[in-house]
Amino acid sequence: MTAQEEIEALLARVSSGDRTAFRKLYAATSAKLYGIALRILRDEALAQEVMEEVFTGVWERAAQYRGALASPLTWLVTITRDASIARLGAERAAGRMTGPVEITERLYAPRPEVKELEGLREEARALETCLRELPRARADMLRQAYLYGATYADLARSAGASQDSLRATLRGDLLALRDCLSR
Amino acid sequence: MKTPLDRDLPGGWEAGAAEYSLGLMPKEEIAGFESQLVAEPDLQQDVAAWAEYFACFTDLIPEETPPPQVLRRIEGKVFGAVEKAPVWQQVLPYLVGAVVGVVLAWGVFASGLLEPDRPVLSADLSAADGALTLDARFDTATGVLTVARRTGAAADGRVLELWLMPDDGAPMSLALLRSAETLVALPPEVVRDLSGARLLVSEEPAGGAPQGAPSDGLRAEGRLTTR
């Protein structure tokens, strides 16, 4: 059984209220998910609250995973990413945290080195290879959107461009990326 | 049904699927996109593929093991809620099999499962100034400790944290008391010896005590006794 299949099997058991499966699922995925929450939020207390939110949700809604198109780990990663970004947005709105532009200036969105590409799984390698066909600054904007919740307004401000023209450009980039990925 | 933006911007729904998965889609366009998504399997496929690819951005983020109290709090929330399920749901697993059912009915009565809310051990938690008072009830049948706040609260931006203080050994964080009533599923090794156990409530920064031990902000305490 692959790791993905194991997570999928655990999710199915969790959806029928299996506590042992829930603990196993937590043991198998929490370090990966906590790493993501911590990277996005840069705050242990907030990242821990996101973990509570994510796993409480998993217990209540594991059944929703069935039939989803994404892999089970991607489902968990996406939920964690979205919850972390939402929390980051709330903290920023309340003035308790700086914006994503300041954050990325301090902690640059990591782009894997060429030598690191080999160690990546197939999808990640394809994504990184295709991102390299875009201008670097714009590829990094896509990373910042995903990892720090940067909006078009944030990106336009830091690039000194108008929001509409940046959006048109990035949408073109996303289509080019799609073409490259489907090759 | 195309919005003006989809006509003016390159890529149409296909680019929209990427923006949606990346979190870049402006808030006011999301509802329109999602109603399209429900109707179009191809678009769902696109969103799923993007989710799969963009999740790769997290591949290089180092794993970090969350501290143990995170799982404890999660279990307190999710299993605690389950423990409050109606009696028949708690008893149901014991009723599988008609023959053994009769024998087990005795076991169910004897273990007190039919009275899930009956407190076996309880404590009044308070401090000399009386500003904060709480009730704690421990149900040995379910292993759940219920803590209810009667008066007082944490200061703004702070949180109350509940601790078990063994006579010898380090204090153990049981839960953050964010709501008026908190259910904590206690680990079996703790449950064994709770009579006379000392509980303490401290006031901590929003995420709980940073050092894993109660800070000086002691707010209330008490001992679990049989009533």
From TrEMBL, chain A:
InterPro entries: RNA_pol_sigma-70-like (IPR039425), RNA_pol_sigma-70_dom (IPR014284), RNA_pol_sigma70_r2 (IPR007627), RNA_pol_sigma_r2 (IPR013325), RNA_pol_sigma_r3/r4-like (IPR013324), WH-like_DNA-bd_sf (IPR036388). GO terms for molecular function: sigma factor activity. It comes from the Bacteria. Keywords: Sigma factor, Transcription, Transcription regulation. GO terms for biological process: DNA-templated transcription initiation. Residues 25-89 form the RNA polymerase sigma-70 region domain. The keyword Transcription regulation applies. Belongs to the sigma-70 factor family. ECF subfamily. This is RNA polymerase sigma-70 factor, ECF subfamily. It comes from Antarctobacter heliothermus. The lineage of its organism: Bacteria, Pseudomonadati, Pseudomonadota, Alphaproteobacteria, Rhodobacterales.
TrEMBL record, chain B:
GO terms for biological process: regulation of translation. It comes from Antarctobacter heliothermus. It comes from the Bacteria. This is Anti-sigma-K factor RskA. InterPro entries: Anti-sigma-K/W_factor, RskA_C. Residues 218-227 have a biased composition (Basic and acidic residues). GO terms for cellular component: plasma membrane. Keywords: Membrane, Transmembrane, Transmembrane helix.
